[in-house]
């Protein structure tokens, strides 16, 4: 299996067989870092870290030059710099990434309407119905790679296969800037050689449970009796992994993905011990989550918070509401209530707020009265001001105060669907 630094890369020859394929997984290479290089060519070829300020930030992305030193996403920037002292650190520019993501997703839609964005920088495409116009799936993949590079200056890697699962594995192996095609007849042999960690959905704990039983490759999974898999992983996951190992993945490309959650989190420049300051930050994050919910047309039925203490102990709390909401005041109030339940025995390094269990905003029954009517009008004013003057130009007085966070991105950043060209 190829590693995140590009070693072990596999690509297909020009005459690769794509018989029986129709699914493409397109993944932009080191997307945030690549955009920063695009906007500042002097960064090209240098180890680059996209993240918060050096002392407290977290790595959002890293160039392949930095990855070869062991730098990874979600790593503390300080740790990344110890691994790669010569790296250049730049703060993220999410609005720029979002704009380019929309351009890229629009290119995908030129080829097929069956596009399923997975995140801001990757998507599945079903090109089964596009053959007569554009050629075979392998040819379509080459067309897309060329168009993305020509129009945006960015490169992507593409996996072509008969199922979503195999296409995603293939795109990972092809990185960076590669194309890997796995024909339907070659699927079994392709999967058999992969480590268990390559299977989509097998996380570190599941992999450790399998490896502890001597199950290290996909071929080992196929040779293992189902009861053994069930004992290691549980019956539901044992069945799923058994099917994936055999190339069975009936999932279709879903053009209308339902968001699971919307969240924001911030790492402080210095650990914060003052509960009043933390409550203010939670209120501010609640407003940001609410704004994203409204932009996407969602309401959250559950509100969750994350608090990371100075010793990196991370605590989570959540509460399901009587009625789903997209009101910033309500989300902030619940976040603060959850925070009050935490024993604050040391300063705090990071706080986060997340809306979960999302529902369509217009799908809730009308109540006889609306306790949040006044706050909805406040949110409308905030949305209008943000549209006219930019985010943060106007905010509620309760959230005023000096910013204490490093420059941070939304957790699991996604773009809301907009017509047929939304990006995940």
Topology:
Layout: E1 23-28, H1 31-39, E2 48-51, E3 59-62, H2 64-67, H3 77-83, E4 88-90, H4 94-111, E5 115-119, E6 122-126, H5 131-134, H6 137-152, E7 156-161, H7 164-174, E8 179-181, H8 187-192, H9 204-211, H10 218-223, H11 226-233, H12 235-245, E9 261-272, H13 275-296, E10 298-309, E11 314-325, H14 328-340, E12 348-360, H15 373-389, E13 410-411
Parallel strand pairs: 2-4, 7-8
Antiparallel strand pairs: 1-6, 1-7, 2-3, 5-6, 9-12, 9-13, 10-11, 10-12
Helix pairs in contact: 4-6, 11-12, 13-14
Class by alpha and beta content: alpha+beta
Number of H/I helices:
15
The CATH level-2 architecture of the domain at 261-411 is identified as 2-Layer Sandwich
How far apart the termini lie comes to: 26 Å
Secondary-structure element pattern, one letter each: EHEEHHEHEEHHEHEHHHHHEHEEHEHE
Estimate the helix proportion, in percent.
Answer: 25-40%
Extended strand count:
13
Mean pLDDT comes to: 85
CATH topology of the domain at 261-411: Dna Ligase, domain 1
- Whole-number radius of gyration? 23 Å
Write a structural description:
Helices cover 38% and strands 21% of the residues. The chain is α+β, with helices and mostly antiparallel strands and 424 residues long. Among the domains are: 32-93, MutS, DNA mismatch repair protein, domain I, CATH 3.40.1170; 193-245, DNA polymerase, domain 1 (Orthogonal Bundle); 261-411, DNA polymerase, Y-family, little finger domain (Dna Ligase, domain 1). The strands form 3 sheets. It has a 5-stranded mixed beta sheet. Strand 5 and strand 6 (122-126) form a beta hairpin.
């Amino acid at each position: 299996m190829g590693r995140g630094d590009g070693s072990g890369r596999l690509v297909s020859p020009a005459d690769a067989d794509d018989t029986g394929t129709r699914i493409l997984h397109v993944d932009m290479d080191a997307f945030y870092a690549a955009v920063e290089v695009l906007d500042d060519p002097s960064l090209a070829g240098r180890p680059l870290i996209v993240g918060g300020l050096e002392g407290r930030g977290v790595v959002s992305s890293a160039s392949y030059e930095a990855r070869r030193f062991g730098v990874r996403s979600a790593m503390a920037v300080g740790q990344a710099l110890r691994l790669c002292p010569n790296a250049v650190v730049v703060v993220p520019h999410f609005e720029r990434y979002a704009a380019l993501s929309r351009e890229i997703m629009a290119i995908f839609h030129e080829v097929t309407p069956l596009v399923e964005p997975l995140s801001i920088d990757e998507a599945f495409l079903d090109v089964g119905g596009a053959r007569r116009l554009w050629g075979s799936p392998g040819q379509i993949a080459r067309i897309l790679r060329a168009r993305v590079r020509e129009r945006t200056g960015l490169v992507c890697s593409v996996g072509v296969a008969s199922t979503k699962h195999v296409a995603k594995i293939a795109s990972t192996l092809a990185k960076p800037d590669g194309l890997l095609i796995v024909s339907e007849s070659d699927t079994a042999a392709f999967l058999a050689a992969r480590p268990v960690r390559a299977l989509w959905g097998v996380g570190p704990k599941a992999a450790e449970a399998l490896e502890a039983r001597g199950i290290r490759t996909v071929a080992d999974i196929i040779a293992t009796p189902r009861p053994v898999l069930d004992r290691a992983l549980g019956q539901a996951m044992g069945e799923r992994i058994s099917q994936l190992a055999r190339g069975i993945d009936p999932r279709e490309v879903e053009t209308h993905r339902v968001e699971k959650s919307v969240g924001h989190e911030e790492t402080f420049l210095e650990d914060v011990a003052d509960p009043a300051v933390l409550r203010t930050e939670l209120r501010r994050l609640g407003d940001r989550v609410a704004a994203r919910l409204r932009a996407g047309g969602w309401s959250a039925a559950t509100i969750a918070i994350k608090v990371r203490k100075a010793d990196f102990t991370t605590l989570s709390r959540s509460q399901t509401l009587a009625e789903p909401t997209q009101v910033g005041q309500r989300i902030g109030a619940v976040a603060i209530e959850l925070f009050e339940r935490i024993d604050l025995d040391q300063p705090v390094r990071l706080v986060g707020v997340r809306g979960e269990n999302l529902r369509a905003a217009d799908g809730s029954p009308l109540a006889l009265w609306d306790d949040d009517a006044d706050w909805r009008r406040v949110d409308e004013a905030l949305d209008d001001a943000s549209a006219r003057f930019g985010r943060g130009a106007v905010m509620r007085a309760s959230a005023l105060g000096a910013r204490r966070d490093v420059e941070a991105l939304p957790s699991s950043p996604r773009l809301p669907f907009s017509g047929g060209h939304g990006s995940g």
